[in-house]
Amino acid sequence: MTPLISKKVAAAINAQIGLEFLASHQYEAIAAWFKLEGLPRLKAHFSKQAAEERDHAHRFISYLLDAGMELALPAIPAPQCRFKSAEEAAQLALDHELQVTDSIKALLNLAEKENDHFTQNSLQWFINEQLEEVSSADELLQIISRAGDAGLLFVEHYLATKLEADGDDKD
Ligand code: FEO
């Protein structure tokens, strides 16, 4: 197949796929921790986030292959599995979203430099998605911080209402 993007951009996309899978693994680990803490709605929220990150990785893989480039998945570091508090877990989730956002912006800058309109165009979906994901991770951290450890059942109630409204009311 004729390559439609440069090797440099393809390498950056392969690295981005690794970051998306890492984010997915990290959310699975956070979801598992919340399950063992007896907080099923927080568990469900992070399981849903893990699935979304896998979807992001798959979208990047499809784009890479459509552009005629090889998939070269990097090694994925182990995620953090233990947390001192719900706040620490939510902070880590926000930090991950910010890291992924920076990485997508850098990818966009590279595509602009390379005059690569295909990649610039396909990255717009991810840029919009990151705005929503950073905002939602930031909001959840604020709510968890305000509730404190003793108020986590309020957070569960908030998420139950939100997940029902989104039609995702399952573990
Ligand atoms: Fe795929 Fe939440 O970044």
Concise summary:
The protein is mainly α and 171 residues long.
Keywords:
171 residues; 5 helices; binds MU-OXO-diiron; mainly alpha
Characterize the structure shown.
The chain has 171 residues and is mainly α. The chain is built from five helices and no strands. Helix 1 runs antiparallel to helix 2. The protein is elongated, with a radius of gyration of 17 Å. The termini are far apart. The mean pLDDT is 95.
Uncertain residue segments: none
From the alpha-carbon coordinates, what is the Rg to the nearest angstrom? 17 Å
> Number of helical runs?
5
Based on DSSP secondary structure assignment, what is the total number of beta strands?
0
Form type: elongated
Mean pLDDT: 95
Question: Which range does the strand content fall in?
Answer: under 5%
H-E order: HHHHH
Distance between the termini: 42 Å
The level of helicity is: over 70%
Give a list of the ligands: MU-OXO-diiron
Structural class, please?
Answer: mainly alpha
Largest sheet: none
Which secondary structure elements does this structure contain, and how are they paired or packed?
Layout: H1 7-36, H2 40-66, H3 86-113, H4 117-147, H5 152-165
Helix pairs in contact: 1-2, 1-3, 2-5, 3-4
The structure holds MU-OXO-diiron.
